[in-house]
Amino acid sequence: MLRFLALTPADQVTIDKIECNRVTKKYDAIVIGGGHNGLTNAAYLAKAGLEVLVLEKNPYIGGATVSRELHEGWKYSNCSYVCSLLRPEITRDLELPRHGLQVIPYGGSVTFCQNGDYFGDYPDHGRQYREIARHSVRDADAYERYSADVMKQTRLIRPFLMRTPPDPTSLKLRDLKEMRVLAKAFAELGEEGLADTLKFWTMSIGDYLDGYFETDVLKAHLAGSGIIGTALGVYSPGTAYVLLHHYMGDVDGTVGAWGFARGGMGAIADALAAALQSYGGEIKRDAEVGQIIVKDGVTRGVALTNGDELYADIVVSNLDPKRTFLKIMDAKDLPEDIIHKAKNFKIRGSSGKLNIALDGLPTFNGIPKNSPLLRCDMHILDSLERMEKAYDDWKAETWSKDPYVDMLIPTQVDPTMAPPGKHMMTVFVQYAPPKINGGEWTDDDRDAFGNNVIEQIAKYSPDFKDLILHCEVRTPREIEDEVGLTEGNIFMGELTFDQLLFNRPFPGYAQYRGPVPGMYMCGSGTHPGGGVMAAPGANAAREILLDLKRPNTVPAGYPDD
Amino acid sequence: MRQHDETMLLQTPFHSRIAKACELNQWDDWKGYTTPHVYTEVEQEYFAIRNSTGVFDLTPMMKYRITGPDAEAYLNKLLTRDIRKIGVGRVAYAVWCDDAGQVMDDGTVFHLGENDYRLCAYNRVMDWMMWSAMGFDVTIEDETADVAALAVQGPTSCSVLKAMGFEGIENLKAFGIRTYAFDGVILMVSRTGFTGDLGYELWIDPDKAELLWDRLFDAGKNFGIRAIGGAALELARIEAGFLQAGIDFVAAEHAVRMGRSRSPFELGLEWLVSFDKPIFNGRRALLEEKKNGSRYRFVYLDVEGNKPAEHSFIMKGSKVIGTVTSAAWCPTAKSNLAFAQVESKYGNVGEVLVAEIYYQRELQWTRVLASCTVIEKVIFNPPRRRQTPAADF
Known about the structure:
- The complex is a heterodimer.
- Chain A is an alpha/beta fold.
- Chain A contains 18 helices and 20 strands.
- In chain A, strands 1, 2, 11, 12, 13, 14 and 20 form a 7-stranded mixed beta sheet that branches. A 7-stranded mixed beta sheet of chain A has the order 7-6-16-17-18-15-19, with helices on both faces. A two-stranded antiparallel ribbon of chain A has the order 3-4.
- In chain A, helix 3 runs parallel beside helix 11 (about 265-280) and helix 7 crosses helix 10 (about 240-245).
- The longest helix of chain A is centred in the middle third of the chain and has 30 residues, at about 175-200.
- Chain B is globular, with a radius of gyration of 21 Å.
- The termini of chain B are far apart.
- Chains A and B meet through helix 4 and strand 5 of A and helix 3 of B.
């Protein structure tokens, strides 16, 4: 009796919560998908004081930002493998370093040539100049012009990464203001700059590079960034922008630099999860959402595939637009236009991945043992023609027989992912189609795809095959089945102009709000797209908090200079 | 002819190895020695300290050997902290002051044996040490050139030393000393450093310097070992929140203008002053200061944005209340850190001040007024720094 009298209001709340739990706890917000954007979104909502739950279908979090040990003693960055675009504002604001994240920059890249030569893009500028000049003095000079032009374009885009795209058809004050910011940024470029921007956003990377360089291998070397993760060829319009997307990040202010997340890309998800939990957010693994519950035209919660229902007035989807609107939402809850838009959303699979445990450091033809070129991105395919042919195979619904690869051996830098003296190799492969000759990928197809890549690498590395201890092969099938990315598209939708800015994912839905009140999107299918930026998740949180009339917890972007 | 007659700058015993590794040929002059500023790339060298192992030649560091029956008593008078508490086989950070209680230098004191110490300093302090030694039965020797030293710093540094065969090194506690046999001489290893990370310093006879370098790099090849220059170390020490003499304070003896020197209190080093001791240089002045208050306060600032507040004025409103001495964007802590000295009535933890930052891009200067918050400690402070046994990576 005395105890009862001593109850404080705080105790009362606890008891209410216990009561609630027994029935079903209602959250303020549920985020579907524990990828890096889902976790970022949830972290900012939790930071604002909301009770947030993240639901992840897998027993592990991270989505495509994941590190798993599939061979004892080796950790892979199974999907995404390098880090540059992750917004520094978010890293700092969510205190990700305190939660264990460390991003270590690496520099440079190399392309191996069929004739035994190579092109080395050294991190040191003087050495890089000499190396280009070895192939063409004119190209070495042109590279300065190219770098400045690309930098102009990244400076245009970077300030918009942490902003919600304006709706160009809206007359709302906020949209008009944002349109003005956009217009001002374009105006600052001047006439010539504007023309360049339009070229950059519409041209093929092949045509763009033809405007600067004469050396085949240099063009092929640079063009890789234009096709990665994209179901387009080097001569397809729109691929120039994809290159820009790979140049607009930074590590510690060095624009265009890339780095390794120490311990693998999963370290990003782990740090985000720790940040989320530090604000009181919850994560539930092995919890696949089957349906977003909509009642009387408003979002009410989610139903898991195991039948459990969880309630919240705000439901945020970290899934891609196709999966969100065509799989976990009921057509009757949606306006018809969005179903069409989702069906027509371009999210074609085009990439595969090999993760390889190596017994030692392989050697590569013509590259000295201690060369910095072994510690950076290594590419195969030394001409635009070979790259286009690789794309021809994709169009013919088969994997590239002479594939482009972007491979790295991060264990030369990161001591945490393999035993000392042993190595891990990540091999990104372009192209791999979502279907093989109209049919589903089979295990035999997967193995043949993997072997073809291994043979390709072995042509440039005589001891490579003998060093392989274990190999994980991921085709678009594995990427879709495990991660949930439709067709295995790594960017959650192609990064072409028709699907960027206020068109991402669809016109009229680019401000992270779904068609049903209380339903939001926060994945890479929204602005500014994929690449482990965490910006979509943060931007979506800002919009949600705005709707809730809560103080904003999302930091503004650093001003560029 | 002596070496100094033949050459402008002296070379350390590691020079043959350093010159070979110094791809950029960028050198510093450190106390008259040629030392590497950058070997290949500052960023990669910095990350060797934070991700694997960075090796830094610290031979030019001033090293004084203090022996004799009164060595302990003498140091207890010279230094502000209580040296009796530093056991044999231990190292301590220390400062020393002039009679006005102004800091002359900071450094580390190594307790090598009974009444046997090594004092490492940034400045040359023989004159002051001799003055202070009056009445003490001690011998003071400058052994800077007689001891070659390497800092081996970073998360894999213990693994590297284990691979060199230094048994039990993982059990060496922070600020501890151990010795190992190395090619017929004694190699001293201390778990000390200037990076705020797991790390060690190796001290050896200069004749064995090249061999030590070679064995170290051989043992470290699977642990990401890399030689690092002064630029990378500077970044790491700022991130770790360590003061640098000559940058964050002017040695009392060198200050020409009134009021330019600082007391330990004004540098945030109160914890190094032990008034329990009846006598030490500067005691009376420091007691006065403790009673009457200090003129300045040393603060760490978390600066908004990503522009380092190098040499910035610090303002409260429109009033200039201090200046920044060191500043950097810290790549591991992902913080924009500045060390500042402000008027003592400002700078309470949590206080928001303004840094006036100037930066230049393509010949044009831009001025930013960045809000900054006084923080108690720097953000970078990984558990591996003190963890014993030391971790593998």
